Amino acid sequence: MPEPGPRRRMLVLAICCMSLLIVSLDNTVLNVALPSLRRDLHASTSGLQWTIDAYTLVLASLLMLAGSTADRIGRKRVFMAGLVVFTLGSVLCSLAPNLQALVGFRMIQAVGGSMLNPVAMSIITNTFTDPRERARAIGVWGAVVGISMAAGPLIGGVLVDSVGWRSIFWINLPVGLAALLLTLRFVPESRAPRARRPDPVGQVLVIALFGSLTYAIIEAPTASPASIAPPAAVALAALTGLLLYEPRRAEPLIDLRFFRSAPFSGATVVAISAFAALGGFLFLSTLYLQSVRGLTALEAGLWMLPMAVPTFLCAPLSGRLVGTRGPRLPLLIAGVAMTVSGVLFAAFEAETSDSTLFLGYVLFGVGFGFVNAPITDTAVSGMPRAQAGVAAAVASTSRQLGQTLGVAVLGAVLAAGVGGSSYRAGFVSAARPGWWILTGCGFAVLVLGALTTGRWARRTAERTAQRLRSAQVRDVVAAAERA
Fold first, then answer.
1. For the chain, what is the domain count?
2. What is the dihedral of CA 429, 354, 403, 55, to 10 degrees?
């Protein structure tokens, strides 16, 4: 198939960005609706955590499966299936009669969402083959996250205040249907030259690890140690099983050889840290603005703009910097900005003053705007193109796992600190340990950005890519000999 021209490539990028928009918009809109869900569905703090984490947990568990499946049977086919399931899940969420049903329908949404972002990123990396052009495309991709962060709270605020929280799921319908029709018409089909075999054992172990770990963290503040021990043991057993089983497979779900590359490993941990900070930041901020300050959903949405606008503006700049100067500078800027923002809240109670609250939001938005493009570019570049779907899926899984853990950990910290008192009475002191955790996440981005982008790190990436290519050649030769 001939390589698509510039206009066709930009159209493919726009279609892929539409899928990212509805997935990202869904989470930012839902955060604004959390206080309404707490009132209408009588949800506890852990219940609010599950409305977010049920989605991100399933997403994180299935992303690698979706990426490898798309490489095997066709990226366009899997992408379209994801749009259908996600749109259907959105309809069901809008009809949920109670909290348990909403959590279940969010999981259906996530099954569709798992087929969108990593597959769309794989489509982009196979469409934009020039490294600089690809970096700019990834910068645009990152800017869409900024758009969703800017538009989500505002749209959610208007809908929650005027119609109700159920209406926040309706906005996915027109965008999902439009993306589906445009994909059918304009996105070319692609797949890896050599299909990867399924890894059902690895998939079950990933689900067991992520699910049991998240459950143990969220339920820890209200459950007894005896009831937390079994899921914690399951998580440890699943992790051990992955480390022992996956290296023995010729085509594992998680190719642990990827992690011999320092940039890839760094990008994975940076993604977990940055998105844990994002998930926790949005969770704490939304509850504080509405439950402590008493703002309406729309007013809370407006207060999120100082964070969202810098993200939108800095993401494409980060993409250009990655394309011209590499990932080091954007990661250092991101780490410094996110760390300083966390310190403002943790040490100086920034939320208690409008000026420091505004500054803290701006700094976090700058940091998050700079961090996304280098994560994606570092995870994908240097890997063989045949592994693009798997590498992109690992990066996307790291993002969703980070967001899941951020909401789980900070929600648990908040629930333990508030105890039986109201949010209004004990929120600031209860949230302070959570802000220190977010500070640590920002500092991890800074340190790893410095350590995994130098000459030594690039040499490990080159050696890893060479090993992967050599292994692919050996596998092809062995398959030919068997045939």
1. 2
2. 100
438-463 pLDDT per residue, tens: 999 999 999 999 998 888 888 888 88
pLDDT tens digits along 9-28? 888 888 888 888 888 788 77
Judge whether 440 and 269 are in contact, CB under 8 Å: no
Is the same domain home to 43 and 137? yes
Looking at the structure, do residues 227 and 344 belong to the same domain, yes or no? no
d(CA 90, CA 79): 17
| Residue where a domain terminates, one of 228, 248, 268 | 248
Q: How many CA atoms lie within 13 A of 196 on its CB side?
A: 26
- Are 75 and 131 found together in one domain? yes
The verdict on 214 and 334 lying in the same domain is: no
pLDDT digits 0-9 by tens, 94-115: 999 999 999 999 999 999 998 8
Query: Domain residues for 211?
Result: 200-248
Tell me the CB-side half-sphere exposure of residue 28, using CA atoms within 13 A. Answer: 29
pLDDT digits (tens, 9 = 90+) for 120-147: 877 887 788 777 787 778 778 767 776 7
**Does residue 1 form part of some domain?**
no
Contact between 102 and 48 (Cβ < 8 Å)? no
For position 333, what pLDDT does the model report? Answer: 96
**Residue 366: per-residue pLDDT:** 95
**Same domain, yes or no: 324 and 384:** yes
Rounded to two decimals, the pTM is 0.86
Contact 236, 200 (CB under 8 A): no
128 C-beta neighbours (distance < 10 Å), count: 20
Cα 483 from Cα 481, distance rounded (Å): 5
Alpha carbon distance 189, 157 (integer Å): 38
User: Are both 23 and 138 inside the same structural domain?
Assistant: yes
- Selection from 144, 158, 143, 150 nearest residue 305 by Cα: 150
Which residues have CB under 8 Å from 468's CB, separation 6+? 255, 257, 258, 383, 384, 387
**Element holding 39 (H helix, E strand):** helix 6-40
Q: Do 255 and 131 fall within a single domain?
A: yes
What is the length of the chain? 483
319 & 224 share domain: no
Q: Which of 11, 20, 184 is closest to 117 using CA atoms?
A: 20
C-alpha torsion 261→263→264→266, nearest 10: 120
Say how far apart CA 87 and CA 200 lie, in whole Å: 27
